[in-house]
Amino acid sequence: MRTYPTLVAIGILAACGSVAAAERNVLQGAANPHEYQLNNYDTYVLESVSPKYPQSMLEQNREGSVTLRATVQENGTICNVRVIAATTEIFGEAAQNAFAQWLFEPGKRHGISIRQDITLDIDFRIDGLPSRSGRQLASL
After folding, report:
1. Residue 39 CA: distances (Å) to CA of 29, 60, 117, 123, 127
2. Helix and strand numbers, DSSP H then E, in the chain
């Protein structure tokens, strides 16, 4: 029996209030819009660590899901990892411990690294068991 945590989705939320509005204003006045776009982007994953499937959940054939929230710092490391929702506390802890080890390329605004809040959904599934979540699974 094979087990695997599945990374379902990652959403990026700008840490700054009205970044989009400020960017539109800068872009409209930019002499070279292409150069502006090269210096502005959201964070993306460089290295990820898969959570370990908790042995007690495996023995019970339990599957579950976790939603995490964290901040990507200017240096690409993660801080303030929080469990927003979890099927069980055990799945939440496993996902939280793994996510804290991820490394990102930080987002940039005007060529300067910025902090960004992100959310991540992780499904814990056992190969061969029918999916009970009804969610579409996708891997990063």
Report:
1. 15, 49, 19, 34, 42
2. 4, 8
pLDDT tens digits, one per residue of 120-133? 999 999 987 765 55
What percentage of the chain's residues is helix, strand, coil (to nearest 5)? 25, 40, 40
The per-residue pLDDT for range 15-54, each reduced to its tens digit, is 333 344 434 444 444 444 444 455 678 889 999 999 999 9
Question: Is the CATH code 3.20.20.60 the one for domain 3-126?
Answer: no
What radius of gyration do the chain's Cα atoms show? 18
Where are the chain's structural domains? 3-126
pTM given for the model: 0.67
Q: How many CB atoms lie within 10 A of CB 139?
A: 7
